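Hi Y.,

Following your request, here is the sequence exactly as I used it, all 119 residues.
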Amino acid sequence: QVELVESGGGLVQPGGSLRLSCAAKGSIHEVYRMGWYRQAPGKERELVASNHNSGATNILDSVKGRFTISRDTATNSVFLQMNNLKPEDTAVYYCNAFIATMTSGMDYWGKGTLVTVSS
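Below is the corresponding structure, written out as tokens. Let me know if you'd prefer a different format.
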């Protein structure tokens, strides 16, 4: 049993900052990739940022220079530092990870944390 536990969402004014955290817990053999997706009302879920064990990082063009993804492999955690937030960043943010247990490997999702950017 594996679960992703997220924290850090909330309400922030435009120009403000938030830090999202996600920890993978359970019977984990190896975590290959961790990242964040978001889904705004009426829109499809989109990849915000991801980090692979190879060191490769993907990040959405519209958040480059404002958002930074980082990982703590010792605790199977991933973080998203979000600076200079804009109203269009308002969305539910989901942690995602590809995790191998002793029997299988698959994608896991957190329950989501709401980020609201509004004055």
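The chain has a mean pLDDT of 96.

Thanks again,
Q.
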